[in-house]
Amino acid sequence: MKYGMSFIIFLIVLTSICDTASQLFLKFSINSLDLQINSLKKIIGLIWKLIRIPRVWLSFFFSTLSLFIWLFVLSKADLNLAFSLDSMHYIFIALGSVLLLKEKIGTARWMGIVSIMAGIIMVSVS
What we know:
By secondary structure, the chain is an all-alpha fold. It contains six helices and no strands.
């Protein structure tokens, strides 16, 4: 079965979305904890708390899903194209950070994100 370029691009976008969801779930999880770690006992306690947070497990799920999609993409597309297009996760992370985490992004960083977008467009049409 042959896969069209639009299907491969869709899968790469899906991989980036899964990666973004994974990172956002981890950030929400770690923000909910007290991170004063100054002993082995507190490190073990932190790990125990982390494994009991459902968002951490959702993060693992999305990371695993992303991995399997990515492996399929790598079997069908050139690495150069796939890896270049996978840079979309930088854009998705920035948007998720602003919209969901209420983080501020400065002008220089937005300019970098626009540069990434221009690069993605150039790679995808070449």
